[in-house]
Each structure stands twice: as structure tokens, then as C-alpha cells.
Amino acid sequence: MNQTIELAIIGAGVAGVSAAVYAHRAGLQFSLLEPHAIGGQLLLMERVDNYPGLGVGTQARVLAENLEKTLSILHIEPIQEAVTSAAIEKNQLRINTDERCIVAKSAIVATGASFKKLAVEGEEDFSGRGVSYCAICDGFFFKNKVVAVVGGGNSAVEEALYLSNICKKVYLIHRRDNLRAIAYLQKEVSGKSNIEIIFNTVVRRIQGKDFVETLILEDVKTHAPREFAVNGLFVAIGVTPATEILRGIVTMDEAGFIITNEEMNSSVPFIWACGDCRNRPLRQLITAASEGATAAISAYKYLKGGYISA
Fold it and tell me: Which of 90, 110, 143, 159 could bridge across to 15 with cysteines, CB 3.0–4.6 Å?
């Protein structure tokens, strides 16, 4: 089945749904492709406390359900098929799924990213119950508690520094004997009395009853195990963008995130990127929503040569 449309929106997390809402308001002919449930990273979160206008403690699944309701009210029916490949043909993007081929005059990529995981026993069981992948998202829940951060790069050190202003004690666990973070971040960590770095150590198991209670750590040199009591574990070993289908089509950074300008334009004039698949300084729901709206307005300007009213 072949279909030609003005705009394809790939991904239906917060960024993709925001783009769809604004594309609908602009009167664009578009398709929203999402093989999984609506919501993206929301489906992996427990609560949302930092989105202005939402009540503190809003359950993430409720927000995901509201996104789906919004699409339903606007009569936007997502195509529940995964994009298997894409290619540029005659200044358009040819998008293939297992069921159809869509030729789009423009495209918004909102495919998101996934957190790299430790792949240890207990990680999946305690995800959202003490195991987190975002200090800014979940740090507040651990106020005056003891937490550990796993990782040694910029992200891990930044997470530890952020948590040190909230938590009683922060342990930074790193498998090597020195941090990989840039010098000024390491200097900041050394100046924090409630951050303790544990070098040459990996997490082997996460334990607890209803929530995380202890970690089983292992010294990478001696292989000696030890049990370590914490209230929470933040995994900060990186994220992987879901951008493989665009590889070789748009410019990406070394990690595979799509590089855009402030209007969300990629290196291809008719392709925009928004949300976690984009190279961005802050990966939050609120910024994803903003970027989705910006991308849709940019697409409208490209297709119609004008602006939409507020």
C-alpha cells in the first residue's frame, strides 16, 4: 500500500503527540506512526512532579492516557506500525513499514531514546521503585535519603551533583579507577562533602522488598562482593537514540543524536527532529512538548510558507 502525504510524524511520545496536535491545528495532512503504546518514556516512569500545570505527584501513566485521549478527541488515529527503513527520493522522504510505503513531503522525527541499562538482576523489578534513569525527574522523591549513582562520565557526575543538593548522601559508583567527566565537574564533586566516589566497582544485583534497599557490589580487581544499603539507584551510563532509520540521511553527532537548529530543522530541509532523539541539553517532558510544537510550526512554514495563529 502506497500513500502520499504532506507530513509524517514518527513517534508518539510527548514530542510526537505535541507535533501532531500542532499539525492538526495547522490543517496539515499528516500521519502519526507509533508501533507501541502512546507515551514514550512516560511508560517507564512512575510519577511526574516537574511539569507546570500538572498536579505534583501526577502518575505518568495518567499523563500517557491523557495524550492518547487528546489524539482521540482530535480524531488523530496513529498508525501502529514500526518504520523499517527510510530514504530520500525527489525531495521527499520515502518511509517503509511492514505494511505500507508512505511518501511524505516532510517529516518530523520524534523516535526518542532509550536509557542504557546495567542488565543486572533486580533492575527491571525495581524500575520506578527505587531504580531511576533521571535525577531531575525523580530526585525529589529521595529527599534526605541515601542514593547511589552509577557511571563516571559527565552525565553521571552531573546527576550526582544535582542529587547532592537533595539527598543526605550520594555514592558515585564507577567501574574504573578515575572519572571520565570533564575537569571542572570533577572539581565540583571533590568539593561536595556528601558525595563519596567508589572506584573500581560494579553493581551486580539490586535487592529489596517493595523498594530498593540494598545493592550487591563487586570490586573489579579482587572480585570481592559486598552488600551496600541505599534507598535508590540512579543509572547514568548513557542513552541510545532511536535514529538508526535516519542514519546516512541526516547529520548526527557521534552518539547518533540528530543535530538540529532552534527551529528543529535537521540537515535536510524537510526533516525536523524533536524530543530525545535530538541532540539537546535538557531531556525533559516539558522541553519535548515545546520542541514538538516548534517542529510542527516549522513544517507548516516549509509546506505552506506562512505562520499559524496562536
Answer: 110
In the chain, the amino acid numbered 51 is Y
| Cα–Cα distance, 292 to 276 (Å, whole number) | 11
Residue 241 CB partners (closer than 8 Å, separation 6+):
111, 112, 113, 252, 255, 256, 257, 258, 276, 277
pTM score of the predicted model: 0.76
Would you state the cell numbers that stand for residue 263, as one nine-digit string?
527551529
Task: Give residue-wise pLDDT tens across range 110-166.
Answer: 999 988 999 999 999 999 899 999 888 889 999 999 999 999 998 899 899 999 999
pLDDT in tens, 247-296: 999 999 999 999 999 999 999 999 999 999 999 988 889 999 999 999 99
Residue 291: exposure state from Cβ atoms within 10 A (0-12, 13-18, ≥19)? buried
Buried b (16+ CB within 10 A) or exposed e, 111-134: bbbebeebebebbeebbeebbbbb
Nine cell digits for residue 38: 502512546
Supply the residues annotated as catalytic.
Answer: 134, 137-138
